[in-house]
Every structure is written in C-alpha cells, then in structure tokens.
Amino acid sequence: MSEQSPTGVPPVAQDVLLARAYLSRVAEPPAPALARLVAEIGPVEAARRVLEGRVSEPVAEETSARRAVQRAEADLAAAAAAGARLLTPEHAEWPHWPFAAFEVSGRRELAPPLALWVRGPGRLAALCEQSVAVVGARAATGYGSHVAGDVSAGLADRGFTVVSGAAIGIDGAAHRGALGVEGPTVAVLACGVDRAYPAGHQMLLERIAGSGLVVSEYPPGSVPGRHRFLVRNRLIAGMAAGTLVVEAGLRSGAQRTAADATALGRLVMAVPGAVTSGLSAGCHRLIREGALLVTRTEEVLEAVGRLGLDLAETPGSGIERPTDGLDPVAAVVHDALPARAHRETRWLAMEAGVPIGAVRVALVDLERRGLVEHCDGRWRRPRGDEQ
C-alpha cells in the first residue's frame, strides 16, 4: 500500500505506518508509558517489543490486553476505503510545534497521540498554524448557537481554522459558521473517522471532510465512549492557539477542554451569558478564574492573532455624534437647553453656571453647527433634536 505525501516529500516507510497503526489500536489513549517508549526506540522496535511482551510494567499495563490484536494492515485498508489515511509524527504535515506542549506538560492525561487517523484534504500542520478551538454545551441555547456560529464565521473568514468536536449544539454551530464562509475547520472525533457520530451530523461531517479535516486517535471502526470524549478534548485544545468556551455548565466536557488548554499553556476565552442561565455558569466561573472575557470575533483575534496588528476596536468608536468636538462650555450650554421650550441667554447662563459672555460665544458655535435655533430673542434646540 502506497502512502500519499506532499509533493517533493518522501513518503513514510511502510513498516513505520504498520507499526504506528498497530500501536494505535493496541493502547487506549492516552498512553504515556508507550509514548515514551516510542520516543526512545522508535515505533517499529516499540511495536515489536509490545507484540512479544518484552516491555516494562507501565507499558505492559497499557498494552497487554490488546497486544495480540494485529489489525494494522486491515485498519489501513479500512481507512483507505473510507477516504482516510494514517498521519504520524514522521509525516511532514504532523503539527510538531503545537503538539510539543503535550510532551512537556508532565501530566499523564496529556500524553501525546501516537498517530492520528484523518479524513479530508486538509494538512493538519498548516491548519494548526492559525487556529481557535470553539467548544460548548450540547444543549445550547439559541443565543449560544448564534454566538458560536457568528464568531466562528468571522474567524474562518480571516483565515483562522475553527477546531471543535462535531457534537450537537455549540460544536455543530461552530463548524457550520466556518463552512458558511468556506473557511477551514477541523472536527476531532471520539470514534473512528469512518463513523458518523452523532448520526445526525453525518452530512456535516461529510462537508468538513470535503474541505477541511476529520481527525481521530481511534482506528477505523472504533465506537464512541464517554471516557473517549474526555480524552479527545486534549487534542482539540492542543491543536489551537486558544480555546473559546461559548456556553458550558459547571460540569461539562467544555470545562475539561478549557482545563486541558490551560495545562498546555494555551489561552482560554469565555463568552458571558445571563447570570440566571445554568448553561453560562461554567463560562462565568472560567472568567472569574482568569479566562479572557470575549463577546465578538475581533476580541478573539486580538487575543490569539498577530501581536500589535489584530487589535479590536472599541464597539461604536467609529460612530460620530453631532456634539462630538464641542468645547466644554458649548457642551454644558447645549445640555442646559430644554428639550422643547425656548430660553433667553441670561436663563441659559444661570442654568449652565457659565458667564453670560461665554454663553453668547458658545451659542454662536452651536448655531453654526446646527445644534441651536434663535427665535424671537430666545434659543431652542432644533425640531429634530427634541428627543
């Protein structure tokens, strides 16, 4: 079986692919002891020792239950039949820089993946260069789905990859937002890439695989499990420069993704919601614990984008009001004008607390700007400025 590779880059050796495929099935992620062994002696020798049972006790604990299961060739063939391929650290498109955080975290639950099964035309290393994880509740509100879709569309429209878990709710809204602007998006599954989970997202996963990438640590045919959703969350956090939590309860998978992101040294952001909403309680706790509060795409870009370049403007900063630019005296005189009545200059001076000479000068400027009208010796606001 030949291995596809970028133009000009030598393909990965078949024995390496077979070894990585075998190890991908033989150990349930995360497998820190096995990962260390592979890093020390290479995947081919590590696979041989695991198969023969010549490994340390920690590695044996991670591999003994399945070490006799030799399905490497069958798994590679099943992946190819589904339009997928095995991506390994020996490939040029492996995201070495983002995944380096796994190796230095020092935490067992954040062990690096041994290999990834991927489906789609995207190149993972390139997709991870500018990326944001957008995660949240499955039982999302309309508000949460709208925010997730809108922010994700804004990110993807600016070339950022949206990484999520393809779940119902916030995840699905994030992927759809990116796809809606024909932007890059990556879905990380807790089952084989040849399975559609949830079943209702089969078409969504096909769309993602058509232009981006569907990714999993688990070999073809693997079924989803509760623990696998928690384990895969570290990959979502690890692939992105920052993790945005849109809606989340106090106990949720999104909270786990945020915790993994923090442990990996990545930025955590959260969208606030109503204080009475249980689906925003997790976001509010994250913000209290130091997560960055964000409300729109520009604020996310400022946090994870290019230093000094992707700066967010203050909302409304570009809207000019007729009274902008007034000097302090003219401003207080204008404020002193009643909404509907006419007033003499002396009355305005007393109301504004300004000498009458200064009031006269201010009224000239206000009249020039169209902010006051003179009628029968008195002053009033223009008809259209009565509210």
Which helices and strands, and how do they pair?
Layout: H1 14-26, H2 32-41, H3 43-52, H4 57-63, H5 72-81, E1 84-87, H6 96-105, E2 116-119, H7 124-129, E3 131-135, H8 142-157, E4 161-164, H9 170-180, E5 185-188, H10 202-211, E6 213-216, H11 226-239, E7 242-245, H12 253-263, E8 267-270, H13 278-288, E9 292-293, H14 297-304, H15 328-336, H16 345-352, H17 356-368, E10 373-375, E11 378-380
Parallel strand pairs: 3-4, 3-7, 4-5, 5-6, 7-8, 8-9
Antiparallel strand pairs: 1-2, 2-6, 10-11
Helix pairs in contact: 1-3, 1-5, 2-3, 2-4, 8-9, 8-14, 11-12, 15-16, 15-17, 16-17
Residue stretches low in confidence (pLDDT < 50, at least 5 long) are 4-8
Category by helix and strand content: alpha/beta
Order of helices and strands: HHHHHEHEHEHEHEHEHEHEHEHHHHEE
Mean pLDDT: 90
Shape: elongated
User: What is the C-alpha radius of gyration, as a whole number of Å?
Assistant: 30 Å
Distance between the termini: 76 Å
Largest β-sheet summary: 9 strands, mixed
What's a concise summary of this model?
With 387 residues, the chain is of the alpha/beta class.
